[in-house]
Each structure stands twice: as structure tokens, then as C-alpha cells.
């Protein structure tokens, strides 16, 4: 698979707490140069970034990040604010505690409400696979499908592990036909990226692919 084809699926990501505007501007420039799917950045930079890239690049941001335990109303407000600032795509974190309590109806309702705010904008749902059992992952595939979200996403990159091939295989077996998959966190080589795509992932959340394309040492998300 050619590098440019891999890049077409990458959400070029910078979510570090210490990210400055210069850092954000740099990854916007890289995203435009390498024609990635989007640039994924903190909400506080969305307005500035969208004004900078205009229609040349989709801007993605994160909601309820990284722990997911904010109230649904808080997530709705965050989402509405991000969209008003120019966000094209929203990556939300589920309430993992609700999943552990078996409150799948509440988890589904929250996703449904955020999708209603998003309208025709893309909503990706981060279920943080490293914190869930196999049964919980399967149930969340069903929940994300029923709630009408556009993508199910493996990880925030801020917990104890990131995407695995096994999780993408599990997603592929249990999501509905209208849900796409995003692998994120710990994708460290072009070979790994290619394998995730071959397994059916449509997006890759990573900060490393552009560095690898430049033959630079790559670490981080």
C-alpha cells in the first residue's frame, strides 16, 4: 500500500496537554501537505485552526476527553461549542462507568444525543477498549450502531493501551453496516497502519505517520 493511500485514512493527531499554537499550526501544515483525512486537535484550538486551514483540511476535535465521565449535558455543550468554532468531526469518549454498571441504554442515549447535535457532521465514539471486557466491547459495538454514530474508535491514547488488531477484528464482526472503524493509539509503523486498514479500519488516529513518512524517529500517540 502506498504511503499516500495510508495518509488518506490518517487523523493527524496532536492532543498533548502542552501543545502550543505553533505546534498545532505545524501539524495543520503537515496534514495539508500529506493530504490526511483530518487534523485532530484540542477543542481550544479549533476556531484558530479552522480559520488557518479553511476548506483545505477537516478539523476534528475531542469531547469528554480523555476520561468520558462528564455529564451528557456537558458533552452536548462541548460538542455544540466545537461545531460553532468550525469543527468538522467530533470524537467523543463514552462514560465507561456506565458500561461497567451495565447501563447500556444510558450510554446509547448519550451517543444518540451527541449525534443529534452533530447532525451531518461525523461523530466517532471512543470506547477505550483496553478498559473493557470482550463482552463489553461487543455490547458497545451494538450500542454505537443503534445510536446512529458514524464510527467506533478503539482508544484515546491516554489510557494503558491503544489499538490492537484483535479489537478491530472484533469490531468488524459486531458493528452494523453503517458504522466505520477508527484505530487509535500506539500505531507505530507503516506496516501496522497498513494492517489496520486491511482489517477494515477506515481511519487511523496517530501522530506518528507523518514523521515516518519523513523518515524521522516517531514516538507519541
Strand content: 15-25%
How far the N terminus sits from the C terminus, by CA atoms, comes to: 22 Å
Q: Provide the spatial order of strands within the biggest beta sheet.
A: 1-2-3-4-5-6-7-8
Q: Which shape, going by the Cα principal axes? A: globular
Structural class: alpha/beta
Written as H for each helix and E for each strand, in order along the chain, the element string is HEHEHEHEHHEHEHEHEH
Number of discrete helical segments: 10
Unreliable stretches, pLDDT < 50, 5 or more residues?
none
How would a textbook summarize the main sheet? 8 strands, parallel, barrel
Cα Rg: 16 Å
Mean pLDDT: 96
The helix content, as a percent range, equals 40-55%
Number of strands: 8
Amino acid at each position: 500500500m502506498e504511503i499516500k493511500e495510508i495518509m488518506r485514512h490518517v487523523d493527524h493527531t496532536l492532543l498533548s496537554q502542552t501543545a502550543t499554537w505553533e505546534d498545532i499550526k505545524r501539524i495543520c501544515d503537515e496534514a495539508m501537505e500529506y493530504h490526511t483525512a483530518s487534523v485532530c486537535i484540542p477543542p481550544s484550538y479549533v476556531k484558530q485552526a479552522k480559520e488557518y486551514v479553511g476548506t483545505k483540511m477537516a478539523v476534528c476535535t475531542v469531547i469528554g476527553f480523555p476520561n468520558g465521565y462528564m455529564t451528557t449535558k456537558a458533552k452536548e455543550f462541548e460538542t455544540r461549542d466545537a461545531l460553532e468554532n468550525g469543527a468538522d468531526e467530533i470524537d467523543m469518549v463514552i462514560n465507561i462507568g456506565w458500561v461497567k454498571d451495565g447501563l447500556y441504554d444510558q450510554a446509547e442515549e448519550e451517543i444518540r444525543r451527541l449525534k443529534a447535535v452533530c447532525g451531518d457532521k461525523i461523530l466517532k465514539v471512543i470506547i477505550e477498549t483496553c478498559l473493557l471486557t470482550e463482552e463489553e466491547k461487543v455490547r458497545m459495538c451494538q450500542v454505537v450502531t443503534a445510536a446512529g454514530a458514524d464510527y467506533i474508535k478503539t482508544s484515546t491514547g491516554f489510557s494503558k493501551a491503544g489499538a490492537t488488531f484483535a479489537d478491530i477484528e472484533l469490531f468488524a464482526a459486531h458493528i452494523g453496516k453503517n458504522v466505520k472503524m477508527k484505530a487509535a493509539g500506539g500505531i507505530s509503523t507503516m506496516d501496522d497502519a497498513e494492517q489496520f486498514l486491511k482489517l477494515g479500519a477506515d481511519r487511523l488516529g496517530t501522530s506518528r505517520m507523518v514523521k515516518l513518512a519523513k523518515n524521522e524517529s516517531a514516538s507519541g500517540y
